[in-house]
Amino acid sequence: MLAADGRRIQVKARAMGPDTRSGAVFSAFRSFDFDIAVLIAFDSTTYELRWAREVPAADIETAGRHSSHINGRLIRISTGAKLGDDVTARFKDVMSR
Fold first, then answer.
1. From its phi and psi, is residue 6 left (phi > 0), alpha (psi between -120 and 50) or beta?
2. pLDDT number for residue 95
3. Distance between CA 54 and CA 84 in Å, rounded?
4. How far apart are CA 84 and CA 39, in angstroms?
5. Are 71 and 48 in contact (CB under 8 A)?
6. What's the Cα-to-Cα distance from 41 to each of 33, 50, 77, 80, 93, rounded to whole Å?
7. Residues 6+ apart with CB under 8 A from 16
8. Which end of the chain is less crowded, N or C, counting CB atoms within 10 A of the terminal residue's CB?
9. Quick one: how many helices (H) and strands (E) in the chain?
10. In the prediction, which pLDDT does 31 show?
11. Beta-strand (E) ranges in 46-84?
């Protein structure tokens, strides 16, 4: 995805519920040819937005754990919730229009 300002964006979304394990991850990052990642967490029952984070690619690469089994870097949901900038309010504003 390409933002209006020219930044290349990779989006990862995950539904979370009471049974979501603490070690649950977003789908793998297999390349880093993007400028920022947007990590989004939804409630698995209502699909209400829980949180959204905008994270530089370098931070994803540093914080992720490499998995040779899937040949990619994995970000735990709990880690992703703390990375980058919180853009939840911006997303909720757009969703309410």
1. left
2. 87
3. 5
4. 10
5. no
6. 23, 5, 8, 9, 16
7. 24, 41, 42, 43, 44, 50, 77
8. C
9. 3, 6
10. 93
11. 49-56, 65-67, 72-74
Amino acid identity, position 28: A
pTM above 0.90, yes or no: yes
CB 35 within 8 A of CB 7: yes
SS3 21: coil
d(CA 48, CA 83): 21
- The predicted structure's pLDDT at residue 1: 81
Taking 50 as the pLDDT cut, the residues of the chain under it are: none
60 C-beta neighbours (distance < 10 Å), count: 24
Residue whose tokens read 């709990």:
78
Find where tokens 């984070």 sit. 53
